[in-house]
Specification:
The protein has 4 helices and no strands. The protein is mainly alpha-helical.
Length: about 90
């Protein structure tokens, strides 16, 4: 019998990691304002930067579903946005 592999982390686990990382980064900016060169501050900022790639992953993962919905319902809105961006 073939066994299917389960993903190592679920979507909710990844979102939790992203929330904790962003909170750590914001707390670091609050407690040590400015750009500090202490190693622990730099490590906290580095860990906080993990949030962006995780969010990019979720944007790309949800894009096909949203694009299919846009074609059906929101064609006039999309055309107005294109015009606004071209100005």
């Amino acid at each position: 019998m073939l066994q299917t592999r389960r993903p190592a982390l679920s979507g909710n686990a990844l979102k939790g990691i992203a929330i904790l990382a962003m909170t750590l980064d914001h707390l670091t900016w609050t407690l040590w304002p400015g750009y500090s060169t202490d190693w622990w501050v730099l490590v906290c900022h580095l860990l906080g930067r993990v949030t962006a790639p995780i969010m990019w992953f979720f944007i790309v993962r949800g894009l096909p579903l949203h694009a299919r919905c846009e074609k059906v319902r929101c064609a006039p809105v999309r055309a107005r946005v294109r015009l606004a961006l071209c100005v």
